[in-house]
Amino acid sequence: MEKAIRLNQLIEQGKEIETPDAFVLQNKKLLKVNMAAARGKVLAKTGSMVAYQGEMKFERKGSGGVDKWIKKKISGEQFTLMEITGEGDLFLADAANDIVLLYLENESLTVEALNLLAFTEGISWDITMLKSPAGIMTGGLWTVALSGTGYVALICKGEPLALQVTPGLTTYTDPNATVAWSQRLEPKIHVDANLKSLAGIFGSAHGELFQLAFQGNGYVIVQPSEEAPKTSLQAPGGQLVEQEASWGAFSRLEKNKHKLKKSLAL
What we know:
By secondary structure, the chain is mainly β. The protein has one domain: 4-Layer Sandwich (Double-stranded beta-helix). Helix content is about 10%, strand content about 40%. The protein contains four helices and 15 strands. The longest helix is centred in the first third of the chain and has 10 residues, at about 65-75. It is globular.
């Protein structure tokens, strides 16, 4: 049982953390961004701002080229970014999910699109796709490839686990529990038809029972939940916004790329 506290105690406990770093965890569910340390610009999931102090400008991030535009059109609202510029302190969160704060130093990481919260300007990004039609079944077909030097903030449902992937030993994960992995790893869809009758025992049911299979040398970050995190990208009914993702749509847009280059000013 927790007793009531005095107002001055609440104010003291909730005081801002002062730090020269660009990103710092105010608490495990709230990210503080020092815009001066971030050189006045960060990229974040659209809708993740909960408060800010100072002068800032929020704009939907352009795709940055025809290829990214095509991928964003297919992935729909599963992945949208806003660019924040200005000065002061910015606070970001996503549906009270836990936040994992990383610093990449000339490193690369692939992240499930819904698990990405924010990153600093030194990190380059691109939208990638699992190279298997079965990936559509996971609800996590679209991922984001990050590389460079800077801060990256991810959301996670609970405390994350980092699994080492070593040659000769395959690591299997539930797609909905998978948060991120080494960019040099390329997951494949693993299906065991003999376990179809046990659907739901290993995480959530996807019709046929399947997992992501990782081979090689690297790591995979998973969350202690087989349910994808609820995020700010939700419809009023509580359902994640639908992603327009199909291999047919991708093929059609690829064929019309030359037309898009003429009509889009990017």
